[in-house]
Amino acid sequence: MPALTTTTDGFLLHGAPFRIISGAMHYFRIHPDQWADRLRKARLMGLNTAETYVPWNLHQPEPDGPLVLDGLLDLPRYLRLAQEEGLQVLLRPGPYICAEWDGGGLPSWLTSDPGIKLRSSDPRFTAAIDRFLDLLLPPLLPHMAASGGPVIAVQVENEYGAYGDDTAYLRHLADGFRDRGVEELLFTCDQANAEHLAAGGLPGVLATATFGSRVTDSLDRLRAHQPQGPLMCAEFWIGWFDHWGEPHHGRDAADAAADLERILAAGASVNIYMFHGGTNFGFTNGANHDHAYAPIVTSYDYDAPLTEWGDPGPKYHAFREVIARHAPVPEEPAPTPGPKLPYTEVELTSRTPLLAHLDELAERVHAEQPPTMEELGMRSGYVLYRTALPAAGDGLLHFEGGVGDRAQVFVDGAPVGVLERERHEESLPVRALRAGAVLDVLVENMGGVNYGPRIGASKGLLGTVRFDGTPLVGWDCHLLALNDVGQVPDAGTEVPGSASGQVPDTAPASSPDAHGPVFYRGEFTVDAPADTFLALPGWTKGQAWVNGFHLGRYWNRGPQRTLYIPAPVLRTGRNELVLLELHGTTSARAALTATPDLGYEKAH
Ligand code: GLA
Description:
The chain is of the alpha+beta class. The chain contains twelve helices and 34 strands. It is 18% helix and 29% strand. Helix 5 packs parallel to helix 6 (167-179) and helix 9 packs parallel to helix 10. Helix 6 (167-179) links the parallel strand 7 and strand 8 (185-191). The longest helix has 18 residues, at 123-140. The strands form seven sheets. Strands 14, 27, 28, 29, 30, 31, 32, 33 and 34 form a nine-stranded antiparallel β-sheet that branches. Strands 4-5-6-7-8-9-10-11 form an eight-stranded parallel beta barrel, surrounded by five helices. It has three domains: 4-324, TIM Barrel, CATH 3.20.20.80; 344-352 and 489-602, Galactose-binding domain-like (Jelly Rolls, Sandwich); 369-473, Sandwich (Jelly Rolls), CATH 2.60.120.260. It binds alpha-D-galactopyranose. Belongs to the glycosyl hydrolase 35 family. Keywords: Glycosidase, Hydrolase. Residues 11-324 form the Glycoside hydrolase 35 catalytic domain. Residues 517-575 form the Beta-galactosidase galactose-binding domain.
């Protein structure tokens, strides 16, 4: 008997009436040293439950396992902390999770096989799922309510009705949980319309709905689909995510609070998506691809009640007041903003040009035709593809099928242009000053599509590359996973003008040092670690690491202008900042500032 059961219009937990007032918070988007703090703040807002997805792609990076379950991925520890805080847990193990997460959580070793029909009862897909569940569920079973743990319900798939209608696949998943010992309540979630609810539902499994507004209509549609049982909004969207190059999203706190009031006044249960969004650290962000490819930014702040950096925002207080009208809220005072590091400038004192140090940084694979990143076994990061141009003169470089997702092109080390999947760019005029000129194409995987039919779309060079119609063959592919920036050789080259903070553009335009990708390194001192934000005025686009911790991507395209540095990444005394700047900088300095900038000036 599951701990959580349903009645004609509500839930019982261990036999007593229970309303789920939950908030989404993804452990994999929060530094593990901050999990306890975030969970405590969830309880203090009045939540009785915390919800999380489980990212298959990170937990099982290789098809044959093993399961990765440490550090940021130590889900059992997260569940223990939730329980210590007195919170119940809703677990959403996917295996598809959407979530603006790389590939929607489906591992690239799986999505790269074009023979596999994803999210279906294709036996090759379900066999992969079965292997994952075999690995994942044994360490989680002790944390299920049946064993005295906090997990009271488990979601089957995710908004499946928006994607397919293969009920046998949903049944396989539900049976897969049961066969491996999960006794807890199962549920599906779908966007609140009749078609999605019908296609994504499973007889005998509780249906829930996802929506952000039009509360009454949405709950009515859920009720029409499921005449009896608890009403639950499994994702109440109180904010939204951002794409690079688009305005920052915000939602008025009073407006969101009014809708929360409507949900609770209707007697429904709720999971606030997100309570605390966190960060897409490293290469973990996803992308949308509707009319065009649109990668998600590094911050997943989501305009949530608890900000990306763990401070209560306007919604925190507004929601706490709403919840207090319907359920007991702890009497302890609401949390206040945490300390921030004092403003600190970081001088980037050494520079290591990428193209000059490829062999130290990258494994090299030779191929006649350019392989995709998946064919090269690259889950994320960059590949530098190198070949020679056959003839001197002007010509058109054409990339059949385009690039995945952004390519910087160099001839004999000189930058000649950029191609972006976002802009459907496939061709570029180039001039080779000699036959045999070196063509370098540095391709960045900007994040795997996480929603819709394009999940698993390839990265890297996607087809034949031609120079004035002649196919280019014989490629050296340099695999830049960038898992360990400690490997970046310290070329010891002083940054010109670092004392003045300006890099004079003294190198000739044809030198790769002038505008090409360069690793920069600098040190700074911290008296007492505290949260801070990395600001990079004058820098263009790249990656940032602090003490080896990969903060993620930066890009002056915005809207996000600063990267969150969690306090636990810093140490008292000497700290190190490493940047991979892909284009160029007008400054040799970065700043650690107490003021985040997610693009508020454009908020609507
Ligand atoms: C849907 C998905 C979530 C997330 C939100 C948008 O509801 O289920 O994973 O992608 O959209 O943030």
